[in-house]
Structure formats: structure tokens, C-alpha cells
Design brief:
- The complex is a heterotrimer of chains A (439), B (290) and C (275).
- With 439 residues, chain A is α/β, with parallel strands linked by helices.
- Chain A contains 19 helices and ten strands.
- Chain A has helices at 2-20, 34-41, 43-49, 62-74, 89-96, 103-107, 118-123, 146-151, 162-172, 193-203, 220-236, 246-254, 267-271, 314-324, 327-337, 354-359, 363-372, 396-412, 417-434; strands spanning 24-31, 53-60, 82-86, 125-126, 129-130, 133-145, 180-183, 258-264, 283-287, 300-306.
- In chain A, a hairpin with a 2-residue loop joins β4 and β5 (129-130).
- In chain A, α18 (396-412) runs antiparallel to α19 (417-434).
- In chain B, 74% of the residues lie in helices and 1% in strands.
- By secondary structure, chain C is an all-alpha fold.
- Chain C has helices spanning 2-33, 38-41, 56-64, 67-98, 104-113, 123-133, 139-164, 167-175, 180-209, 213-216, 225-230, 240-260, 262-268.
- Chain C is built from 13 helices and no strands.
- Helices cover 73% and strands 0% of the residues of chain C.
- In chain C, α4 runs parallel beside α7.
- The chains are: A alpha/beta (439), B mainly alpha (290), C mainly alpha (275).
- Chains in contact: A-B, A-C, B-C.
- Chains B and C meet through α1, α3, α4, α5 and α6 of B and α1, α4, α5, α6 and α7 of C.
Amino acid sequence: MKKTLGTLAGVAAIALSAHASAETTLTIATVNNGDMIRMQKLTDDFTSKNPDIKLNWVTLEENVLRQKVTTDIATKGGQFDVLTIGTYEVPIWAKKGWLVPLDKLEADATYDAGDIMPAIRTAVSYDKKLYAAPFYGESSMIMYRTDLFKKAGLTMPEKPTWDFIRDAAAKITDKAHETYGICLRGKAGWGENIALITTVANAFGARWFNEEWKPEFDGPEWKNALSFYVDMMKNSGPPGASANGFNENLALFNAGKCGMWIDATVAASFVTNPKDSKVAADVGFAHAPCEVTCKGANWLWAWNLAIPAGSQKTEAAEKFIGWATSKDYLALVASKEGWANVPPGTRTSLYENADYLTAAPFALPTLDAINSADPVDSTAKPKPYVGVQFAAIPEFQGIGTTVGQQFSAALAGSSTVDQALEQAQQSTLREMTKAGYIK
Amino acid sequence: MATRQSTFLGRILAAPSILVLFLWMIVPLGMTIWFSLLRYNLLDPGNESFIGALNYEYFLTDPAFFTALGNTLLLVGSVLLITIVGGILVALLMDQPIFGQGVVRLFIIAPFFVMPTVSALVWKNLLMHPVSGLFAWIATSLGFQPVDWFSNAPLFSVILIVAWQWLPFAALILLTALQSLDGEQKEAAQMDGVGPFSFFFYIVLPHLARAITVVILIETIFLLSVFAEIFVTTGGGPGLATTNIAFLVYAQALLQYDVGGASAGGIVAVVLANIVAAFMVRLIGKNLEA
Amino acid sequence: MAVYSVRRQVTMTILAWIVGLAIFFPILWMVLTSFKTELDAFSTPPQFLFFHWTLENYAEVQERSHYFHHALNSIILSFGSTLVALLFAIPAAWGMAFSPTKRTRSTLLWMLSTKMMPPVGVLVPIYLIFRDLGMLDSRFGLIMVLFLGNLPIVVWMLYTYFKEIPRDILEAARMDGATIGKEIIYILAPMAIPGIASTVLLNVILAWNEAFWTLNLTTSEAAPLTTFIASYSSPEGLFWAKLSAASTLAIAPIMVLGWFSQKQLVRGLTFGAVK
């Protein structure tokens, strides 16, 4: 009991002392993914170099983080000094003037903004200015089981087509032994099934909106793409696919239930880690499947650090961002946790580092995937929006979720592909009209 | 009975609560009504414009609206049914002289303490997952095909999770009511040779009527705004199978950041809730009277 | 007769334990999972007891989060809001129970109906108000929200208890010249204690588990255990074991409280449903 009281008193004392000192305290909102957790653990390195700055971490799951940060910045609540935001938000918020441009960092020679991978740099810039610094970046690619491929007498081509993937998946599938040829996202959500299905659709030559912002779900491309996805998943996918997101598929793959999984490149470090994965030794990587085109066949995403406009602590915040996204930070993580755990996908120099390339077998496929993604030119036909697996307009989250629900219904079999597309067309048309894009 | 003085006093005493609640209701409600008449996107501040009832028109003509309404009622109704029937059975069982009653009671109360997000994650991933969940393992061990819960019976799965969370609440209230049943009454009934079933239907059930009313009322309040369980498990899908009004309003507010539309949705939800409340008062109001 | 009743008792005991364990099972499973490695947590066939027991999840949670800070906030917020609610609700319920008017019942129902609006619909107005009052991420602000959210239920519960107190006793006390204050303290309070106790408990539980306002109106200073949970659920990567550990820690205090006071909770949880 005494001990508890002591602890409580200690907690109270810490809480009070935070107010008493005159140092700058940065409140940092971040997502609870592994790389950010590691950054939180390395706080001491930053504070020992900057003793006048204190860091206050607010770590939250992605959805909660997004809703809090967006509410706060839109109402100018001023709760955070550093924000972690995705490549979806950066251009929209920069355009609104909600973010502070990181001019100093961009000009800083030791920071070396030129080292940031071009695709990622484009994604976090607006009007040729850097508005957020990428912390880690990802694309999508195929992860497959080399042992199962060997057993089935298959070889993965360097740039496979979806047709090949479908046939390979069918061959590998052995439902009696709970081995499913392919695992893909199916859970409704703009960041869940829509991210993946949009890349499938891009490869089939489809686009979300035509130049007049009219949705194109009534076109043949979407129909081909969605029927392909649904048929393949029904034949060779795991049961319950319509509720599987990134994590569910990761668990399935790590438990040895999937022959192939096409998802974020960051997953590569999880599936090859023997502590988390039963199949760590038997994983191969390949470029995300193309079909009629390779444009937009793999997505592009990065988590980035940014400073909200109106913050009083811009200088300290920029210092922190400079530390967290620097080359030195990568070396720091490497020295503490090994090269394989370094946040991937932001700096070209990392992919020229021999230590990293040895430690991370997935490094080159990741680099290749990120470099081949172009958020501006990602569809066969021209499009009015920026973004590979999303359209960087404020309305997309809502629209994407509604459409995602329709698509997951088609996958679950509670509606047909035609019905799903028709409803997606109707609801998207409605929202785009309401939002004033379609006159 | 009450003198004029005491009535006055009663009003004075009740006044602070009514006042704060009134403020708590009227200030946000007033703002919400005002916002619901605007084109107001949170991501586009400074460009608000008055658009009259357009937000309501869009919300009410949304094809998802009636499905969501149906799902909401189905969810509330089913959970009520399961928790009350299940609660009565559990309460009857707990009312028996059993060994280790205290421990069993602890077990039964426990789900009430678990946060909705957590219980949804546990159910979805550790229990109901068709490949790696425990239920799937039980099914395959017994030689059955595992049930694909969230594809084939999405709404039912959500109902099951929510019902699990609320069963303890119902069971506790019903148990308390059951224990207050007169011992003499029981003995008298036994002496008269009343069978257990007629005893239950003619004596126990009427005795529980008020407790059931209470369960219905309190649970309905919370069940109308079930959200976390849906968001975590199915994201409202597949299709609209698990979209309820609360989820629909959420999509407007925190995915579209359409404050105008969400406000309209919120107002519609309040109106609907009051209709449900009025309906319930008619149906069960008598039981609330002393 | 005796034999019959012993056999019956045994049967009922077995049945009750089966039911109890079935209901408790998901929680037990969660607690077990919290001692597994991430890989074991998801392995098939599932392992019940014979897995590699580990404390690494708890160690990780300890290292990453200020558990006691959040737990302390949860305690302050849930008890604080319930106490404020009592301060308002006791007089209100007293007034409604002992000098009811024609509108008493509709007032009560109106109070309950304020809880029926989906909170997300009023998030923006409330957020704006909080911002202007400087109450974002303050315990005071959150206590206010939770207090207002629970007030209807508290008033209603107390109302039902007070109504059961025989009027004659009060009348007699008044004849003896007791003031209202004395009446409440010396007569009403002792009789209403069980009811008040269970009201407190139920509302503490509800406030403890409230996960919309507590998440959206706090950042760190005032953040309770719901925020703590939100930093463990659904990251990119396997998380079930760590989430189970965090959840076990988050529900442990309230569960212990609930278990120790379950007699009170059960006795008082009548909502006037018992005559």
C-alpha cells in the first residue's frame, strides 16, 4: 500500500514538475506502429543533445490519431506541436495553409533533403515546398512462399501479371491443409480494401474519376478488375477474407496459411522475422502484379512528421523533425537495434548502404517498388487527382469507405459484382455532386 | 399530498440538475441545429454557407439511411432479447443454492468491465476468426466446417459480441429482483403443487416485469449508439450489413468531416431516439409507476 | 428429500460453473494471451496452458507507457465525475421523489433521452466550446463531460431508491422539527446508502469504460486508460499479445473494485425494480 502511495505521489510530482520548469515541451502525436515506438524509446538521444526541449509523446492507433489530429488542426485547437500524418493529408493540408513549410530543413546541407527518395519527396511537397518530413515510406509488393512455389513447380517472374498470380494461387491452394493461395485485404475501409483494390483496378486500366470528376465504376475496367479480385479470392482465398485487413493477413501469412500476400512493403520485415513468423526462412518478394498496365500497380504511402501552422514552438519542432528523419537517426537505430529495424523507404542513401542491404533481404524489392510508384501519373488514362491508392481530396475518406463496404459485400457474396459497382457509382456520384465537383 | 411548500422545495432541489442538463443539451443541440443548416466541411473552414435543409435531404435520401435504421432497430431488439432471456436463465441458475456462488458470480459480472474496443478485438481475432480463431479450431476438431462469422452472419456476430457485454448487466438486475421474491410465496406454491413451469410463468415472470422494463430502458440508451464493436470488426460492411445510424453519422463526421451532414444526422438520430423513447414509454411506462 | 436436494445442488453447481466459465472465457483467454509470445498468440491449434509463458508483453507495456499516470487519471475521472453527479443528483432525486409534480416522470425521461444522441454528432460543437474555454486535455473539463453524461442515470437510480423510503418516517421526522438538511443526513442517507453505493459503482464503471470523449478531448495530461489502450490496438504488425497485456492492466483495477464490492452492486442494482 505504501509503495502504491509512493508511486502515486511520484506520478503527481512528475506531473507537477512538468509545469514548473521553463523548458519547451513538444507534444508529439504519433501512430503506434513499430518504427514510431522505437523512436519514442530513443527519446534520450534527442533530449541529451537538446536539454532545453522536453518530449511529450501521444501514441495512438491510426484511426484515433487521424480523427484527433484532424479535428484539432481544423478547429485550431493547438494541442499538438508535431503531427504524424500520411501522404494523403499532406497535400490537402498544405493547400489549406495548415502546415508550416520546412524551409530550414530543406535548405540544410547536413539534413540533405536531396537524399529523400524522389517519389516520396513529391508526395510530401506542395507547390515545390517540403511540408512534411517522411519518417518511413512504403509501397506494395508480392510476398510469397518460396517453398510452396517450389513444391508446385512454379517460378515467380520478376514482374508477374495478375493472370499468373491467379493461376499460381489456384495451384498452391490446399484447403484441406488450410493453405490458401492468396491472401488480400477485404475489410471495408478507405485505408483497407480500397487501397489494395485500387491498385488492382489501376493495373486493369481503371481510374477513380475521369477528368470531369465523374466516377467510372460503370466502365468495363472496374468491372474486369473487381470480378477478377472477387473470383480469385473465392477460389483461392482464405475464409473470412471480407473481414481481413493488414493485420489479419499478416497473422495468416506468419502462421503459414498463405501462399502469396500482396501488401505493404513494411510487412516484409515482419514476415522475415523468426520471432514473429513461422515461415521467416521461406519468403520471396516480387513486384506487385501488372495487367494491362504497370502504372499504379503498387501504392505509395509514407508516415511523415509535420508542424501545424500557428504553433508557438516551430523552432523546437523543426529541430526535432530534423533529428527524427535524419541520416544520423537511421545510424542510431542501427547501432541500438540492428540495421534490419531501421525505418525504411525514405532515404536513397540507406539503399546504398551495404550493411543495410545485407541485413534486410527485402531492401531492394522495397526500393524498386517505391521508385516505380508515381502518385501523379498512376493510371492508364489521365486523371484529375493525385495519389495512387487514394485521391487526395478531402471527400475521399468518406467515399472510399462507402465504396469499400460495397466491395466487401461483393467479396462476402452478399451482393454481386454488378450490384456493388452500381451502388458504388451511385453513392460516389451523389457525394461528388454534393461536394460541388460535378456541376 | 405534497404541500405547496414542499413542491416548491422539490423544484428548487431539482433545478440545478435540470439546469445543467438543459444547458448540456441545448448548447450543443443549438449549435448542432445551426451547423446542420450550413454547408460546413471541417476541412474547409471559413467557407461555411447557409444551405437550408439540404443536409437533411441528403442524409434522409441516402440509400444507406433506411438500411442503417433497420440495422439499428434489429441490433437493439436482438441484443435486448438475448440479454433478457439469457439474463433470466442465468439469474434463475444463480438463484439456486450452488457451491462457489461468489466465484461464479464474479465470472458472470466480468464482461461488463471490458472496454468495447478490447472485447471486439478479442472476439474478432482470437475467437471468431475463421482460420485461426478458437471457434474455428473447435469446429474443425469436431469435423465441421468453421463458420465464417463476419462474412456470412456479420450483423449476428456483432449482436453476439454486444450481447455478451450486456448480459451481465441484465443478469444482475434480474437476479436482484428474483432474490426479492418472497420465500413464503415459493413455499406456498410448492404446497399447492404448482409445477415449476406454471410457477415461473404465473409468479416469477410477473414479479420480474419491472426489472425487465428497467433493463430495456437502460440498455436501449446505450445500444442505440453502439459503434466501437462495428468499427473494429467489420467497418460497417460487408455492404451495409452492419452499418447502423451511429456508424453512418461517424462516417459523415470523421471520414467526410462533413460537419453539416453529421449534424443533420445527429439531429435525425435524436428525433428517432425520442420516437423510440416515446414508444417505449407507452409500451412499458406503466411498469415504471410505483 | 435430502438426497434429492444434494443431487440437485450438485447438478446446479456444475451447470452454473459451465455457464459462468463460458461467459468468462473470452476474458480468461485474453489474460492467457497476454502471457504468450506474439507468434503463440496466433498459432493453430490454440495452446491453452502449455505454451512458453512470458512476461515480455508486460515488460514492453511498462517500458512504453506511463501506466500509473493513466490509471490515476481513470480513477480521478471516474470517481470525480460520479461524486459531482451525486452532488447534483441527490437533491434532484429527493425533490422528485418526495414532492413529485405532474411533469416529474417526463422530466426524468427527458433527462435519459439526452443520452441518446450519438456523441460523434456533437463532437465538433463540443470541441469548439472546450477549445474556447481552454478545457481541452484538462481533467476538470473531462469530469464535467462525464458527469453530465452520467447525471441522468444517477438521478434516475437515486429517484427510484428514494421513492421506496416510506414517507411516514419523513413525516414523523418533520413533526419532530427536523430541518431538510437533518432529514437528508440523518434519516434519508442511512436508508439510501445501499442504493447510493451501487449507483456510485455502476457509474464509476460506465465512466471508466467511456471511450469517445475521453479519447477525443484529451492528449496526455488528462488521458485515462482508454488512451493507453488506443496506443496498443491495431498497429501495423502483430499486436494481440501486447494488446491483451495492456487490456488486462486496464481492466484490472475496475475488475478488482467490482469484485470486492459485488455484494453492494448486486444488492443495490434494482433501479426500483423491486418492491
